[in-house]
Amino acid sequence: MSKIEVDAIDKQSGSTLTLGGSGTAVTLACGATQTGFGRTGTVDWQTSIKTSTITAVNGEGYFVNTTGGAITANLPTGSVGAIVAFKDYAQTFNTNALTISADGSEKIEGKTFDLVVSTQGQAVTLVYGDATKGWQAVNSNEVTNVEKYVTATGGTITTVCTNFKVHTFTSPGTFEVTCAGTPNGSSTVSYMVVGGGGGAGAGYGGGGGGGGFRESKASDDSYTASPLNATSGPTYNLAVPVASYPITIGAGGTGSSTNPAGDGTKGANSVFSSITSAGGGAGGNIPAPQRDGGSGGGGSVSGGSAPGAPGIVAGVGNTPPTSPAQGTNGGVGFCGSNYRSGGGGGATVAGSPSPNGSSGGGGGTGATTSISSSPTSFSGGGGGGQYNGFPGGGAASPCGTGKAASAVQGAGPAASANTGGGGGGGAGSTSPGQNGGNGGSGIVVIRYKFQ
Length: 451
Fold this sequence. Notes:
Layout: E1 44-45, E2 54-55, E3 60-64, E4 71-74, E5 83-88, E6 98-101, E7 115-117, E8 123-130, E9 134-137, E10 150-153, E11 156-160, E12 164-169, E13 173-180, E14 188-194, E15 213-216, E16 238-239, E17 243-248, E18 270-272, E19 275-277, E20 367-369, E21 376-378, E22 443-449
Parallel strand pairs: 1-3, 2-4, 3-5, 4-6
Antiparallel strand pairs: 5-8, 6-7, 8-9, 10-13, 11-12, 12-22, 13-17, 14-15, 14-16, 14-22, 17-18, 18-19, 20-21
């Protein structure tokens, strides 16, 4: 065998240099390296199984075992023709995904976010093409969905703000999640859960409390939320894995029909996933003559005290306690010769006490949110009723509730359905027809990015 030793080989003419003839294999000796030819599309598979963070090297393939938890693979700096590969060693990518992260601001499939490989048994080979598209999958078992979004059914579904779906539940149902999404697309939801409003007391009875109000706007959402929007903790950026989520819609409490000593009843809870909003507290009516307003977002009925005795604390809101608070306290009834009642607590403002020599106390303000695209108010407290001969009941909260009857004798109005509003207190004393108003039923709204 002859041997030629030269420092360089170049073409004599034209633009092509040919090495070897037809059927001849041109090989590099053991230990020799090459530059400028690019790779053939294959990798050298590493024999050690990877069970923790991987710092990938150009030209290498890795068997990845995520049995013990999710793993991140950091790609090398991109250069044209660079190639790496990964394979689900233990068939567990569907349980614990492999996250592939590009170097700095380099791209994967033309986008500057991580590639999440979450299909059982998945294998992916990536080749760096150029700065425009970055790393791209080239094998037949490639990743087909770089970004996924939450997909679900249930309730009344509307599309708002172009890229968001809203599921509204005004009666019990099921939020059925068929795709949990990925962090690159969407994997969390915004929500609003409102409990049923409290029923009011009869015969100058206390106003019903607004239903508990809980809301959290996901980090990828942009609507105008209420002041009670949760921005941290376990209730923020609520994930929705593939599952069926039963929805409970709390019924409004019943206004009292018993004069002169009848309390309303508490509203019922509304529930979605780990979020429970308590029913509003009932308007008080026993013992006469002090009629305390029901508490917003839970709490029990508060009774009264004998004429002329010191007032007592009305129902305590935010029961059980949440952060942010889901409701406020009810107002205390006036205890004197002129019998009047306190207003129910709202989501954001406590019910007003009954003023001396005037009407019943006003209901507390609820909360306003644009989760369904337009500003809407929920969970206001009902106004307190007044005794015979004293004009006017307490005004309703501005947010979705009734108010005490304005007539000297009359029933308190019911709050509207699916507002979580407290019922209005009845006016008058012992004559028939002075029932307390019913509380409004609750509502659940779930919103997420779908494209």
